Amino acid sequence: MREAWQRKPMLIRDALPDFAAPIDRVRLFELARDPAAESRLITRSAGRWSLQHGPFRRLPSLRHPDWTLLVQGVDLHDDSARDLMSRFRFVPDARLDDLMVSYATDGGGVGPHVDSYDVFLLQASGRRRWRISRQRRLALQRGSPLSVVAGFRASHEWVLDAGDMLYLPPGVAHEGVALGECLTYSIGFRSPSYQQLLEPWFATYSEHTALRGRYADPGVSPTERPAALPTAMAREIHAKLTERQPAVADTERFLLQHLSEPKATTTFSPPSPLPLAQWRRRAGARGLELNRKSRMIYANTALGINGEWIKPPPNSMAIFRKLADRRALAAHEVANLSNAGWTLMHDWYTAGWIKIAD
User: Fold this and answer.
1) pLDDT computed for residue 115 by the predictor
2) Which of the 8 DSSP states describes residue 315?
3) DSSP-derived secondary structure for 253-274
4) pTM score, whole prediction
5) Residue 34: CA count within 13 A, CB half-sphere
6) Residues 299, 217: Cα–Cα separation, whole Å
7) Is 316 helix (H, G, I), strand (E, B) or coil?
8) What is the number of other CB atoms lying within 10 angstroms of the CB of residue 308?
9) CA 240 to CA 80: how far, in whole Å?
């Protein structure tokens, strides 16, 4: 983190010794048939790229070269994939995005491209050749369904075997090509532009900001230019709209909501609900776990979970922080919840956000 994060690429040989891929080809193909999973098929023929979106009932033959299947958000659909993601939580959850798994036959890839986010490229099985470029001109090929960098010129090249990993900061042009059949895991990190945050920030701020009063102009003089915006009107409304300056707490509130928002395709399946008293006894005996799809972050005395801003009971905040950091609570820890804390947890349980520990 000190030497490479957001600074330069870094190759890490044998990053995960004796790595056993939790998502193999068979499991990935199953997910590609699932309408709830986001999948893409990329093929190349005679130098031309094609792109299809899933779900896929059929895929090309494994003997056919130059095709790649990508499934986004695999950690939302598989507990073993979620466990792998937890190994990358040395970066804050506010930045951690998802796990994309790609399967490729010989020669398969997505062409030279540039990402706007940090990524760890973990070779799960087989071999892949990665090339990166320091070129500054990043014009895209015209007419391609993919964002392929035109005139890609490689400056470094490596072949990764299973367990090897390559870190790339944003803005580095790179290309990966399968050397035979291979599986690659991409652990991506969110890096939204400030412009992308501007509109939702204003929307969230306006929801909990009260500006009383209404514009009025008693004593105004008659006008001979009715289409002209009155200068006094603009100044008065500007002064009113800007009289309440947003504080850091307002931005924290927005980020807790915005950065904990699940992906648009995420759905929760609530269990058959147990009454609070019965559920409390079972959870008190076994502990609690966050649903693998749940996003939960906190700041000071508030937290964000799945797009909602919540201020827990003050005497329960330490327990909620543990749940967010560890994604689970032991039985002896949940026993310290207040009655209000239990009620809030039960609401999350009925929404499918948490579950009694296995």
Assistant:
1) 93
2) G
3) HHHHHHTTPPPTT-------PP
4) 0.90
5) 17
6) 43
7) helix
8) 14
9) 53
**Is the omega angle on the peptide bond into residue 230 within 30 degrees of 0, that is, cis?**
no
Give SS3 for 308: strand
Q: CB within 8 A of 126, min separation 6: which ones? A: 162, 178, 179, 180, 181, 182, 183
Both tokens assigned to 349: 């349980």
Query: One-letter amino acid identity for 55?
Result: P
pLDDT digits (tens, 9 = 90+) for 65-78: 999 999 999 999 99
Q: Are 76 and 97 in contact (CB under 8 A)?
A: no
Q: What's 314's DSSP letter? A: G
Angstrom distances, CA of residue 64 to CA of 24, 105, 342, 350: 19, 7, 55, 47
What does the pLDDT look like over 132-181, one tens digit per residue? Answer: 998 888 888 888 899 999 999 999 999 999 999 999 999 999 999 999 99
- Tokens 């367990």 belong to 163
Tokens of residue 239, six digits = 């002064």
Non-local (6+) Cβ contacts of 265 within 8 A are 36, 37, 38, 73
Range 291-308 average pLDDT? 96
What b/e string do you get for 233-255 counting C-beta neighbours within 10 Å, with b at 16 or more? Answer: eeeeeeeeeeeeeeeeebebbbb
Alpha helix stretches (DSSP H) within the chain: 25-32, 79-85, 194-207, 231-241, 248-258, 276-286, 317-326, 331-334, 339-351
Region of residue 307 (phi > 0: left; psi between -120 and 50: alpha; otherwise: beta): left
Position 37 scores a pLDDT of 94
Among candidate residues 122, 38, 128, 127, the one with its CA nearest the CA of residue 87? 122
Compute the residue count for the chain. 358
Please report which residue ranges of 149-247 form alpha helices under DSSP H. 194-207, 231-241
SS (H, E, C) 70-103: EEECHHHCCHHHHHHHHHHCCCCCCCEEEEEEEE
